[in-house]
Amino acid sequence: MKSLPRKDLFELPDGVIYLDGNSLGPLPKGAADRATKSLNDEWGGQLIRAWNSAGWMDLPRKVGNRIAGLIGTPLGSVATGDTLSIKVYQALAAALEMRRDRRVVLSDNGNFPTDLYMADGLLRIIDKGYELRTPAPQDVLSQIDDSVAVVMLTHVDYRSGRMHDMVQITRAAHAAGAVVIWDLAHSAGAVPVDLTASNAEFAIGCTYKYLNGGPGAPAFIYVRPDIVEGIQPTLSGWLGHDAPFAMERSYRPAMSTERMRVGTPSIVQLTILDHALNVWDGVDMDEMRRASIGLSEQFIAEVETRCPSLKLASPRDPETRGSQVSFAFEHGYAAMQALIDRGVIGDFRAPDIMRFGFTPLFLDEGDVMAAVNVLEEVISKQIWRDPKYQTQSRVT
Ligand SMILES: *Cc1c(COP(=O)(O)O)cnc(C)c1O
């Protein structure tokens, strides 16, 4: 049974084809009402009692359990809160403590900057001669050896859409005695993920991309259940404590992934995310993947035929690609501005990448065709040359 797309579940403005759900998912219908209710009825009406009466205190765990269902992990194994950058730090700190005799963190040079920056900052403060290695993504496997403490990778490359083989890399890392962290920022809600099958120790991700939680939505962290009780959280905040309201002098971590929580959760954002996750009810992730590949393949074929000056910057093999397609074009920034001006919203990543996300929840073949029509016009008529498309905004 075909259940996609589900456009009617989203507030999509007229005249817009949204190919940026990989960066900021659109507003799900009803989310604004839900947020208003949490503000007016819960905060306004119930005040501090809402922590109990409106279920605020249980919300981080409840939402974590819903995310667990999307990434193939058991109930209770996913904690939510903070930002992905913070979760990178926590996961890496915990992983390093599991391999105290090793000094190499292996990532790749396509990883998202904040993942590498957070690692740099952590390794600097530990000050024990750690090295962060960032080979090209295709060379990661060959660089795994018994000097590596932690393999920390983003599953789907934010720029190119290239997807690592999660099972193969995790297996190789474990064979060499290393701990594995997967960043699922561009995977959760984009491709089927079976973390349990991969046997990785940690996974982290954000919820404002394919999970449509809205700007500032909380991040998530997964810790493999069999190791969680051995993890000593570095950011040992009170809400990761086993009994926060016992107000004990010493820190005693919760007996689940909840120990990776830090401080007071962002309730309004969690409320919105909880509502946003309803759009996944009944979605078959394999159908989702087939639809995503169909849209991506259609887009690539049309663009290569009609806009030959754009060069595919994503893997050609759909099996090694996430749910986005990137094209390199020298004037990519200006061309993307011209596209956005015409209602086709993708984004640009330096130095020359035009990036298009394909989210089958709200896109169909007609949208892809309409987007390529506009792209062809912008490129063939060199509309991007207009001076108004040359000035760079703060957010690209
Ligand atoms: C989007 C993204 C981030 C963003 O981190 P925040 O802390 O949420 O700003 C981090 N890492 C990767 C791989 C991403 O794709």
Describe the structure.
The protein is of the alpha/beta class and 396 residues long. The protein has 2 domains: 7-28 and 284-389, Aspartate Aminotransferase, domain 1 (Alpha-Beta Complex), CATH 3.90.1150; 57-280, Aspartate Aminotransferase, domain 2 (3-Layer(aba) Sandwich). 34% of the residues lie in helices and 12% in strands. The protein is built from 11 helices and 13 strands. The protein has helices spanning 31-46, 50-53, 59-71, 84-98, 113-126, 166-175, 195-198, 267-276, 285-306, 332-341, 365-380; strands at 17-18, 78-80, 104-106, 131-133, 148-154, 179-183, 202-205, 220-223, 311-312, 324-328, 344-345, 347-349, 353-357. The strands form 3 sheets. Strands 2-8-7-6-5-3-4 form a 7-stranded mixed β-sheet, with helices on both faces. The chain has a 4-stranded antiparallel β-sheet with strand order 9-10-13-12. A two-stranded parallel ribbon has the order 1-11. α7 links the parallel β6 and β7. The chain is globular and about 70 Å long. The two termini are 38 Å apart. 46% of the residues are buried. The model has no long low-confidence stretch (mean pLDDT 97). The chain binds pyridoxal-5'-phosphate. Pyridoxal-5'-phosphate (PLP) is lined by residues 83-85, 112, 114-115, 154, 158, 183, 185-186, 206, 219. Pyridoxal-5'-phosphate binds at residues 83-85, 112, 114-115, 154, 158, 183, 185-186, 206, 219.
